[in-house]
């Protein structure tokens, strides 16, 4: 593939000649520039393999300046062209990283040679840099330290791991050999270094003690090789180092334990351990503690050394000390400010600012104490401290256990987190720990000498007696939790608690004792019961969701039926004189259908299929409507009082606000619990100033209160009153979702809800909703059509998949003075419009149809005739004018509807579209 060359030359003729020459030589000229700024702009997009550039470019940046800028972001080689050359020019060109320059005039073969050389050098340079980058990546990511020093022992290179081992930074890495070697090894390493660079035989692998920047020591193993330069001349050494401090400390510790400390026993051994550990780790002090019997837990220092002096024994509580965390976590460290973190541990105050400790465990894994070190400075290299402490902890714990085995067994029994009982073959309690006394409600020692049957329910004692006898005569150990159901244990006050019990046998000279470990599992049982209750509530929620889906489907079909009823009733009333004896019956049918329509809206709201549309409304009107519904269902002994204390309107969804007040009102009269009383619903205009109400910002609000004289609520119930699934009603009488939904609706409207209640004093729910402003609540006026029905008003296409609705609706449309053609199939309606686009003045289509939806019909109509208005009919409601306009729809008609709603929808749609009757057909 031919190389791509970019030419930068301010002389146009020379540039043209260069292009011709390059093309003759087989290169691809990928771009040209006359000035430096043009070159900087065009070169990146051209992606050349080489840049041929004049040094002197006239106005703007010179060739050398262009090369310097390109060098920061590209490795494309630059071959300079110049009319003259000198040493200064060559030096400046070289500083830009150029691959050479040609002096004008030049021969084609010289041009080719320089280009090919530059391209070859670029490949070689890129290869070298990639190789160097790979090598550096490997070195920098090694787990071992690497250092290269010169003949004098000065560091010329080191990787990050080397700096980490010796606690150095790049800023202080300018060191000599002796600066990171412990004093005892400096002379040895200096002699080996000098002999190695002279070619004398010396060990290449060995270990030595190094010195970190903070003065601490580190053991390293090292492998050393010579570094050779030009002519194979030795220029220094390279060392690969590995931190082996842990291993060396372990070796020293094992040597101490097997020699110097191996001959010691008891307190002498423990004291020697504390002294040697402090010396080995270079800290101010060390201590060994053992755990004491009793409650609360306490520790005693078996041995403690501080700055070379042994301290007298100290007893202190575990709680609030660093030993508490050590016992709990196994290894615990505090690198500074120990006295601030554990201010109640008095013995720490004068001794230490940092601490690291290991838990001591006996052969069974039980906790018997701690071994720890401390210092007035922050502890360094905690990983080494932990290794040494763990090593000494094993031997120290074994010695403490050997010396105090009987006392320790007693402690393990006494401080067990479970209740522990020792029972003889006759069922008499011979030993009980503190937890057992606490669990069963007895004073200390009150269980010893009693029959274990006192801790068992009377109806279960006979079976318990048989089980105990079978266990004494060879029963297998029983683990905690082995039973399917918890055992009900009996307290002293005759109350019961669920317990898990583990059983084991202990052989004594007199026979067999039964050791029983008892654990109170009340919390677990309560958690399981709560889990089962939650599952039941979730199942109830799923049932409600299924009911909502079913209700939504039923409501949709019911809407179609009501639409036909409304249409036929309105048509019949329009055909009959008002004095006709059938007219009152038809009006009753219309009233009943209207109530059914309201029921459908409530069903749709319950099933969440009705969109939320907020309008400007008066909360007092909603309160009056809710009061009428509540009065019909309340018992006669309950008084319902409504109060309107001021006029105020809000922007709200009427259905949702109705749902909120119905829920609160129903809860209010339920709270009377069948007793006579009163429920009060009030609305007032409330102005909240700064600090005037804890739940609302300053402003004007509608305050709706629902108050009852019922049983009230406890603080515990009040705290959870809005939690989902929380209910105080009996099982099967409440889902716990009502107030959670109320809270969500109020918050969604930008309001707040508070509750005040005391047992026996009734309850008051207060809802604050922001008052509506005039500017944000008024809807734009919609042009209304003329109300006269005298002349032709246009031709309407009515589409619905239900023939009953089509028949009834077309009658109503004709009664309004329109021509109308009805369809029950969407494809036939579309075909009719396609065949005669000007035949119809308005299309009315149902939303939900089996083949095409109403939205798809509107889209098809718009494709045929853009100006033909469309009215969408649905039972879902909640469509905004902006949403309708975005879908090319000029109006919306909610099912069920009557004659007034139909006339208004048709007229408004024609007015919005600015439509004039296109057809000449007369009303049918």
Strand percentage, roughly? 15-25%
Distance between the termini: 82 Å
Given the helix and strand composition, which structural class is it? Answer: alpha/beta
Helix content: 40-55%
Oligomeric state of the chains present here? single chain
Largest sheet report: 7 strands, antiparallel
Radius of gyration: 47 Å
Contiguous helical run count: 27
**Overall average pLDDT:** 79
Low-confidence stretches: 775-791, 920-924
What's the β-strand tally?
A: 34
Overall 3D form? flat
What does this structure look like?
- There is one protein chain.
- By secondary structure, this protein is of the alpha/beta class.
- The protein contains 27 helices and 34 strands.
- Strand 9 and strand 10 form a beta hairpin.
- Helix 8 runs parallel beside helix 12 (382-403), helix 16 (522-575) crosses helix 23 and helix 18 (619-633) crosses helix 19 (654-670).
- The longest helix is centred in the middle third of the chain and has 54 residues, at 522-575.
- The chain is flat.
- The model is unreliable at 775-791 and 920-924 (pLDDT under 50).
């Amino acid at each position: 593939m031919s190389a791509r060359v970019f030419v930068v030359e301010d002389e146009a003729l020379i540039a043209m000649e260069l292009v011709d020459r390059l093309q003759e030589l087989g290169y691809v000229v990928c771009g040209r520039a006359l000035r430096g700024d043009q070159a900087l702009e065009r070169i990146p997009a051209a992606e050349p393999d080489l840049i041929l550039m004049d040094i002197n470019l006239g106005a703007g940046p010179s060739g050398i300046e262009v090369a310097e800028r390109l060098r920061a972001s590209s490795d494309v080689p630059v071959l300079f062209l110049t009319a003259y050359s000198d040493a200064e020019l060559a030096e400046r060109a070289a500083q830009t990283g150029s691959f050479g320059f040609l002096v004008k005039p030049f021969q084609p073969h010289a041009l080719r040679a320089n280009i090919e050389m530059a391209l070859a050098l670029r490949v070689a340079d890129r290869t070298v840099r990639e190789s160097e980058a790979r090598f550096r990546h490997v070195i920098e990511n090694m787990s071992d330290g690497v250092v290269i020093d010169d003949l004098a022992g000065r560091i010329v290179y080191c990787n990050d791991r080397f700096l980490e081992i010796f606690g150095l930074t790049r800023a202080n890495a300018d060191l000599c050999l002796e600066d990171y070697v412990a004093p005892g090894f400096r002379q040895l390493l200096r002699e080996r270094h000098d002999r190695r660079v002279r070619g004398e035989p010396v060990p290449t692998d060995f270990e030595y003690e190094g010195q970190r920047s903070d003065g601490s020591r580190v053991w390293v193993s090292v492998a050393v090789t010579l570094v050779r330069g030009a002519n194979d001349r030795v220029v220094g050494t390279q060392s690969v180092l590995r931190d082996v401090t842990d291993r060396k400390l372990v070796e020293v510790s094992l040597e101490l334990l097997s020699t110097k400390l191996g001959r010691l026993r008891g307190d002498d051994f423990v004291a020697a351990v504390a002294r040697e550990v402090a010396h080995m780790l270079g800290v101010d002090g060390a201590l060994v503690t053992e755990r004491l019997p009793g409650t609360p837990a306490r520790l005693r220092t078996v041995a403690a050394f501080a700055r070379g002096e042994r301290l007298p024994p100290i007893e202190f509580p575990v709680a609030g000390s660093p030993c508490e965390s050590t016992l709990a976590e196994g290894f615990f460290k505090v690198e500074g400010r120990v006295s601030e973190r554990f201010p109640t541990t008095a013995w720490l105050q004068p001794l230490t600012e940092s601490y690291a400790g290991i838990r001591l465990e006996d052969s069974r894994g039980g906790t018997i104490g701690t071994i720890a070190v401390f210092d007035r400075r922050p502890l360094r290299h905690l990983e080494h401290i932990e290794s040494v402490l763990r090593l000494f902890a094993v031997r120290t714990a074994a010695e403490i256990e050997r010396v105090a085995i009987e006392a320790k067994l007693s402690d393990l029994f006494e401080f067990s987190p479970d209740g522990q009982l020792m029972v003889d073959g006759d069922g008499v309690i011979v030993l009980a720990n503190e937890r057992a006394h606490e669990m069963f409600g007895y004073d200390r020692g009150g269980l010893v000498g009693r029959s274990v049957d006192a801790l068992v329910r009377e109806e279960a004692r006979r079976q318990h007696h048989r089980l105990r006898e079978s266990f004494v005569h060879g029963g297998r150990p029983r683990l905690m939790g082995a039973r399917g159901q918890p055992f009900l244990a009996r307290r002293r006050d005759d109350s019961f608690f669920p317990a898990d019990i583990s059983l084991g046998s202990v052989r004594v000279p007199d026979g067999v004792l039964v050791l029983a470990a008892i654990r109170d599992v009340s919390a677990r049982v309560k958690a399981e019961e709560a889990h089962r209750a939650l599952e039941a509530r979730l199942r109830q929620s799923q049932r409600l969701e299924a009911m909502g889906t079913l209700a939504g489907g039923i409501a949709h079909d019911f809407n179609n039926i009501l639409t036909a009823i409304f249409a036929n009733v309105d048509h019949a009333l329009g055909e009959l004189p008002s004095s006709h004896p059938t007219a009152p019956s038809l009006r009753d049918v219309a009233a009943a259908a209207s109530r059914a329509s309201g029921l459908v809206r409530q069903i749709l709201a319950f099933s969440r299929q009705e969109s939320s549309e907020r309008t400007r409304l008066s909360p007092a009107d909603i309160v009056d409507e809710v009061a009428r519904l509540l009065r019909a269902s309340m018992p006669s002994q309950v008084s319902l009082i409504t109060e309107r204390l001021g006029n105020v309107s809000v922007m709200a969804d009427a259905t949702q606000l109705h749902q909120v007040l119905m829920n609160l009102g129903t809860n209010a009269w339920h709270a009377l619990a069948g007793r006579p009383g009163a429920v009060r619903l009030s609305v007032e205009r409330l102005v909240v100033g700064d600090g005037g109400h804890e739940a609302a910002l300053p402003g004007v609000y509608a305050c709706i209160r629902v108050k009852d004289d019922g049983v009230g609520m406890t603080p515990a119930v009040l705290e959870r009153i809005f939690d989902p699934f929380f209910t105080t009603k009996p099982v099967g009488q409440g889902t716990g979702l009502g107030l959670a939904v109320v809270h969500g609706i109020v918050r969604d409207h930008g309001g707040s809800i508070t509750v005040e209640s005391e047992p026996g004093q009734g309850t008051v729910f207060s809802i604050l909703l922001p008052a509506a402003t005039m500017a944000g609540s008024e809807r734009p006026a919609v042009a209304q059509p003329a109300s006269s029905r005298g002349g032709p008003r246009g031709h309407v296409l009515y589409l619905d998949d239900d023939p009953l609705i089509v028949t009834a609706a077309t009658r109503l449309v004709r009664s309004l003075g329109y021509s109308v053609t009805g369809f029950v199939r969407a494809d036939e309606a579309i075909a009719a419009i396609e065949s005669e686009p000007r035949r119809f003045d308005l299309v009315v289509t149902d939303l939900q149809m089996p083949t095409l939806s109403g939205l798809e019909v509107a889209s098809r109509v718009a494709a045929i005739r853009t100006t033909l208005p469309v009215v969408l009919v649905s039972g879902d409601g909640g469509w905004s004018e902006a949403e309708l306009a975005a879908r090319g729809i000029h109006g919306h008609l909610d099912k069920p509807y009557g004659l007034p709603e139909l006339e208004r929808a048709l007229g408004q749609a024609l007015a919005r579209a600015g439509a004039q009757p296109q057809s000449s057909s007369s009303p049918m």
